[in-house]
Amino acid sequence: MALAGRGFQMKIGRQVVGDGRPCYIVAEAGSNHNRDFRTACRLVDVAREAGADAVKFQVFAAEKIYSRKTPMASYLQKKNLAKKGETLWDLVKRIETPRQWLPDLVKHCRKAGITFLCTPFDLEAVDQLEAVGVEAFKVASFEITHLPLLERIGRTGKPLILSTGMASLADIEVALEVFRGAGGTAVTLLHCAVAYPARCEDIHLRAMDTLRQAFQVPVGFSDHTMGHVADVAAVARGACLLEKHFTLDRTQPGPDHPFALEPGELKEMVDAVRQTEAALGSPLKRHTPAEEELYRIARRSLVAARRIPAGTRITKAMVAVKRPGYGIPTRFLDVVVGRTARRDIEEDDILTWEMI
């Protein structure tokens, strides 16, 4: 939803997300709760303490997302993230978010003062999240071709955050047509590299510019790299929404723990993003209030190189270029040379127009 005169923007709850606003930071808890509700609540609290704007979970069911015959992803095997003998279906089944948690998770988020978001992976999940009052829906990169899911979300009228990892521009165009055709309006696209973890050379942050130009909506970044260098770079390049996985402990078993940030690291990332935004500042090129004192003291101007008695015709040898900078500007040296001193000028006096 673009707001006139303010670039590309949309609202998540009462918060405006988009151009000209602070980056909206989504702490992705995903399934890192290990099916323990107290852990899920602690993840909410950690996200709030770190300064994130929202905490996000995922709702999926193995029987609705994978065929039992789906082969195991190689990265899960190589990193020993799957239990011995289990299939990809089995793995997904054991990390599902219990749907009966949803009302209490939303309550806990409201009590903590952080926005609850969630990624649905099936139509029933959309309806369940709508029933508990989710502020916006997130659709994962893998689901960009799940057109019935996008249609159901569009019907809710809620904002959509759509990850675009692996997608072509044509894929995104079709997804947006379905979402909008069902009544959806507000959307933010997230650039994403689907790898766990992703390498910096796989990220291609310049593609955010392409998304912004092609679809005229707010654009952000969903990150799976280690650390937060790519996140800071994305914000510097104009990402208006940032999504990052986090965990209480990276050594816990489960597919999303190893590449997630731990609590202290999440706070460091949020702080780095806010410092980056502060550093970006204004496009105007001028001296700032913080530079005012040194602007006067440490720049150069014209200074008497020796004593110049009143009535003396000033030569170039009588004038030096020194600090401070509040005398006659150095560009007027040729104007000063040849003038006559109106009064006695002592060595190192800072020359002003009243003196000549």
Helix and strand arrangement:
Blueprint: E1 9-12, E2 15-18, E3 24-30, H1 37-50, E4 54-59, H2 62-65, H3 74-78, H4 88-94, H5 102-112, E5 115-120, H6 123-131, E6 137-139, H7 147-156, E7 160-163, H8 169-181, E8 187-192, H9 207-215, E9 219-223, H10 229-236, E10 241-245, H11 263-280, H12 292-297, E11 301-304, E12 319-322, H13 333-336
Parallel strand pairs: 3-4, 3-10, 4-5, 6-7, 7-8, 8-9, 9-10
Antiparallel strand pairs: 1-2, 11-12
Helix pairs in contact: 1-5, 1-11, 6-7, 7-8, 10-11
How does this model look, in words?
With 356 residues, the protein is of the alpha/beta class. It folds into 2 domains: 9-61 and 96-280, Alpha-Beta Barrel (TIM Barrel); 289-355, Type Iii Antifreeze Protein Isoform Hplc 12 (Alpha-Beta Complex). Helices cover 33% and strands 16% of the residues. It is built from 13 helices and 12 strands. An 8-stranded parallel beta sheet has the order 5-4-3-10-9-8-7-6. Helix 6 (123-131) packs parallel to helix 7 (147-156) and helix 7 crosses helix 8 (169-181). The longest helix is centred in the C-terminal third of the chain and has 18 residues, at 263-280. The relative contact order is 0.12.
